[in-house]
Amino acid sequence: MGKRFLILAAICLVITVSILGQKKTEPQLFSVNLIKNGGAETGESRDWTNSTELKTFRYDGGWGDAWQVTPTSHGDSYFHASVSKAIPKLEFSQNFDLSKIAAEIDANKVDYYLSGWFGVRDFSGARLKTAFYGIDGKQIQEDSTEKFSSENRPDDVTFVQKSRGGIVPAGTRKVKVTLEFYIFENADKEEGLAAFADNLSLVLTEKEK
Asked: Is residue 202 part of a domain?
Protein backbone atom coordinates (compact mmCIF):
# COMPACT_ATOMS: atom_id res chain seq x y z
CA MET A 1 0.00 0.00 0.00
CA GLY A 2 2.80 2.38 0.95
CA LYS A 3 4.78 1.60 -2.20
CA ARG A 4 1.72 2.14 -4.43
CA PHE A 5 1.05 5.48 -2.74
CA LEU A 6 4.60 6.65 -3.36
CA ILE A 7 4.36 5.69 -7.04
CA LEU A 8 1.07 7.58 -7.45
CA ALA A 9 2.51 10.61 -5.65
CA ALA A 10 5.54 10.61 -7.94
CA ILE A 11 3.31 10.43 -11.03
CA CYS A 12 1.18 13.35 -9.76
CA LEU A 13 4.33 15.37 -9.11
CA VAL A 14 5.62 14.77 -12.65
CA ILE A 15 2.25 15.78 -14.14
CA THR A 16 2.09 18.94 -12.00
CA VAL A 17 5.61 20.00 -12.96
CA SER A 18 4.80 19.36 -16.62
CA ILE A 19 1.65 21.50 -16.48
CA LEU A 20 3.46 24.34 -14.70
CA GLY A 21 6.25 24.18 -17.26
CA GLN A 22 3.76 24.56 -20.09
CA LYS A 23 1.97 27.53 -18.50
CA LYS A 24 2.80 30.73 -20.33
CA THR A 25 4.29 33.57 -18.36
CA GLU A 26 2.04 36.62 -18.35
CA PRO A 27 3.67 39.61 -20.06
CA GLN A 28 4.97 42.35 -17.78
CA LEU A 29 3.02 45.56 -18.35
CA PHE A 30 4.25 47.90 -15.63
CA SER A 31 7.57 49.75 -15.53
CA VAL A 32 8.94 48.24 -18.76
CA ASN A 33 9.18 49.55 -22.29
CA LEU A 34 6.27 47.96 -24.14
CA ILE A 35 7.66 48.86 -27.57
CA LYS A 36 9.55 46.00 -29.15
CA ASN A 37 12.84 46.96 -30.76
CA GLY A 38 12.35 50.63 -29.91
CA GLY A 39 16.04 51.29 -30.45
CA ALA A 40 16.46 49.55 -33.83
CA GLU A 41 19.05 47.30 -32.23
CA THR A 42 17.97 44.14 -34.05
CA GLY A 43 19.15 45.79 -37.25
CA GLU A 44 15.70 45.33 -38.77
CA SER A 45 12.13 46.51 -38.23
CA ARG A 46 9.95 43.40 -38.41
CA ASP A 47 8.27 44.16 -35.06
CA TRP A 48 6.53 47.11 -36.76
CA THR A 49 3.74 47.12 -39.34
CA ASN A 50 4.74 48.15 -42.87
CA SER A 51 8.24 47.12 -41.86
CA THR A 52 9.68 47.02 -45.38
CA GLU A 53 9.50 50.83 -45.50
CA LEU A 54 11.17 51.34 -42.11
CA LYS A 55 14.94 51.22 -42.47
CA THR A 56 17.75 51.07 -39.94
CA PHE A 57 21.11 52.79 -40.10
CA ARG A 58 24.18 52.37 -37.95
CA TYR A 59 25.77 55.29 -36.14
CA ASP A 60 29.12 54.31 -37.59
CA GLY A 61 27.82 54.44 -41.17
CA GLY A 62 25.48 56.40 -43.43
CA TRP A 63 24.84 59.74 -41.73
CA GLY A 64 26.13 58.35 -38.47
CA ASP A 65 29.47 60.10 -38.43
CA ALA A 66 27.80 63.47 -39.11
CA TRP A 67 25.48 63.54 -36.05
CA GLN A 68 26.18 66.50 -33.79
CA VAL A 69 23.78 65.37 -31.03
CA THR A 70 22.78 61.75 -30.48
CA PRO A 71 20.35 60.10 -28.03
CA THR A 72 21.46 59.42 -24.51
CA SER A 73 22.62 55.81 -24.09
CA HIS A 74 21.92 54.90 -27.69
CA GLY A 75 22.94 51.58 -29.22
CA ASP A 76 24.47 50.88 -32.61
CA SER A 77 21.48 51.71 -34.83
CA TYR A 78 18.54 54.05 -35.40
CA PHE A 79 15.41 54.17 -37.60
CA HIS A 80 15.11 56.07 -40.86
CA ALA A 81 12.33 56.57 -43.41
CA SER A 82 12.03 58.70 -46.54
CA VAL A 83 8.97 60.73 -47.50
CA SER A 84 8.14 62.94 -50.47
CA LYS A 85 5.32 65.01 -51.87
CA ALA A 86 4.10 61.85 -53.59
CA ILE A 87 4.23 59.93 -50.26
CA PRO A 88 3.85 62.65 -47.60
CA LYS A 89 3.43 60.30 -44.65
CA LEU A 90 4.56 56.85 -43.53
CA GLU A 91 3.32 55.12 -40.38
CA PHE A 92 4.59 52.08 -38.49
CA SER A 93 2.65 50.63 -35.55
CA GLN A 94 2.61 48.15 -32.69
CA ASN A 95 -0.42 47.07 -30.61
CA PHE A 96 -0.56 46.04 -26.96
CA ASP A 97 -3.31 44.25 -25.02
CA LEU A 98 -3.95 45.90 -21.63
CA SER A 99 -6.92 43.79 -20.56
CA LYS A 100 -4.88 42.16 -17.77
CA ILE A 101 -4.68 45.49 -15.95
CA ALA A 102 -8.25 46.59 -16.66
CA ALA A 103 -9.10 47.04 -12.96
CA GLU A 104 -6.18 49.41 -12.38
CA ILE A 105 -6.94 51.35 -15.58
CA ASP A 106 -10.62 51.79 -14.74
CA ALA A 107 -9.63 53.08 -11.30
CA ASN A 108 -7.45 55.74 -12.99
CA LYS A 109 -4.34 54.28 -11.38
CA VAL A 110 -2.21 53.82 -14.51
CA ASP A 111 0.04 56.51 -15.98
CA TYR A 112 1.72 56.39 -19.39
CA TYR A 113 4.95 57.95 -20.56
CA LEU A 114 5.66 58.23 -24.29
CA SER A 115 9.16 59.18 -25.40
CA GLY A 116 11.57 59.15 -28.32
CA TRP A 117 14.53 60.87 -29.93
CA PHE A 118 13.95 62.39 -33.37
CA GLY A 119 16.04 63.97 -36.10
CA VAL A 120 15.09 65.79 -39.31
CA ARG A 121 16.61 66.51 -42.67
CA ASP A 122 15.37 69.31 -44.89
CA PHE A 123 11.55 69.42 -44.76
CA SER A 124 10.56 66.21 -42.97
CA GLY A 125 10.04 65.09 -39.41
CA ALA A 126 9.02 62.23 -37.15
CA ARG A 127 6.95 61.77 -34.03
CA LEU A 128 5.53 59.02 -31.80
CA LYS A 129 1.76 58.72 -31.39
CA THR A 130 -0.42 56.64 -29.10
CA ALA A 131 -4.11 55.76 -29.27
CA PHE A 132 -6.19 54.11 -26.55
CA TYR A 133 -9.08 51.78 -27.46
CA GLY A 134 -11.96 50.33 -25.45
CA ILE A 135 -13.31 46.78 -25.41
CA ASP A 136 -15.59 47.69 -28.33
CA GLY A 137 -12.59 48.68 -30.44
CA LYS A 138 -13.53 52.36 -30.49
CA GLN A 139 -10.83 54.95 -29.87
CA ILE A 140 -11.11 56.68 -26.51
CA GLN A 141 -8.16 59.06 -26.60
CA GLU A 142 -4.96 59.83 -28.50
CA ASP A 143 -1.74 61.66 -27.80
CA SER A 144 1.62 62.29 -29.47
CA THR A 145 5.02 63.81 -29.01
CA GLU A 146 5.52 67.29 -30.48
CA LYS A 147 5.19 67.55 -34.26
CA PHE A 148 7.99 69.39 -36.02
CA SER A 149 7.44 72.09 -38.62
CA SER A 150 9.61 74.62 -40.42
CA GLU A 151 9.19 76.91 -37.40
CA ASN A 152 10.23 74.53 -34.61
CA ARG A 153 12.47 71.99 -36.36
CA PRO A 154 15.83 71.14 -34.81
CA ASP A 155 19.05 71.56 -36.76
CA ASP A 156 20.00 68.90 -39.29
CA VAL A 157 22.06 65.96 -37.95
CA THR A 158 20.75 66.70 -34.45
CA PHE A 159 18.60 64.29 -32.41
CA VAL A 160 16.23 65.85 -29.85
CA GLN A 161 14.14 64.07 -27.24
CA LYS A 162 10.39 64.60 -27.14
CA SER A 163 8.07 63.16 -24.49
CA ARG A 164 4.43 63.10 -23.45
CA GLY A 165 2.63 61.61 -20.49
CA GLY A 166 -0.71 61.31 -18.76
CA ILE A 167 -3.28 58.93 -17.29
CA VAL A 168 -4.42 55.92 -19.30
CA PRO A 169 -8.14 56.67 -19.79
CA ALA A 170 -10.66 54.48 -18.01
CA GLY A 171 -12.13 51.83 -20.28
CA THR A 172 -8.88 51.26 -22.21
CA ARG A 173 -8.22 47.66 -23.19
CA LYS A 174 -5.71 48.15 -26.01
CA VAL A 175 -3.09 50.74 -26.86
CA LYS A 176 -1.60 51.37 -30.28
CA VAL A 177 1.75 53.08 -30.74
CA THR A 178 2.58 54.62 -34.13
CA LEU A 179 5.88 55.96 -35.38
CA GLU A 180 5.02 58.58 -37.99
CA PHE A 181 7.32 60.14 -40.59
CA TYR A 182 5.91 63.12 -42.49
CA ILE A 183 6.72 65.96 -44.85
CA PHE A 184 6.30 69.58 -43.73
CA GLU A 185 3.28 71.35 -45.18
CA ASN A 186 5.37 74.07 -46.82
CA ALA A 187 8.11 71.80 -48.17
CA ASP A 188 9.60 73.15 -51.36
CA LYS A 189 11.47 69.97 -52.19
CA GLU A 190 9.80 67.10 -54.05
CA GLU A 191 11.76 64.12 -52.73
CA GLY A 192 14.90 62.99 -50.93
CA LEU A 193 13.44 64.00 -47.57
CA ALA A 194 14.40 61.88 -44.59
CA ALA A 195 13.70 61.76 -40.87
CA PHE A 196 15.12 59.65 -38.08
CA ALA A 197 14.07 58.13 -34.74
CA ASP A 198 15.65 56.19 -31.89
CA ASN A 199 15.11 55.10 -28.27
CA LEU A 200 11.34 54.91 -28.66
CA SER A 201 9.42 53.92 -25.54
CA LEU A 202 5.98 53.56 -24.00
CA VAL A 203 6.08 52.86 -20.26
CA LEU A 204 3.09 52.29 -17.97
CA THR A 205 3.36 52.81 -14.24
CA GLU A 206 0.89 52.01 -11.47
CA LYS A 207 0.12 54.75 -8.98
CA GLU A 208 0.99 53.99 -5.39
CA LYS A 209 -1.92 52.56 -3.44
From this structure: yes
The side-by-side arrangement of strands in the sheet containing 174-183 is: 89-97, 174-183, 124-133, 139-144
Full residue range of the structural domain in which residue 160 is found? 27-206
In the chain, the number of structural domains is 1
The candidate with the shortest Cα–Cα distance to 75, out of 92, 89, 56, is 56
Across residues 157-184, what is the average pLDDT? 95
Amino acid at 70: T
Instruction: State the CATH number of the domain containing residue 179.
Output: 2.60.120.260
Residue 8 lies in a domain: no
Residue 13 lies in a domain: no
Summary mean pLDDT of the chain: 85
Residue 6 counted as domain residue: no
Q: According to the model, what pLDDT value does residue 22 have?
A: 43
Condensed to tens digits (0 to 9), the pLDDT of residues 78-128 reads 999 988 888 899 999 999 999 999 999 999 999 999 999 998 877 889 999
Do residues 124 and 183 lie in contact, with contact meaning Cβ atoms separated by under 8 Å? Answer: yes
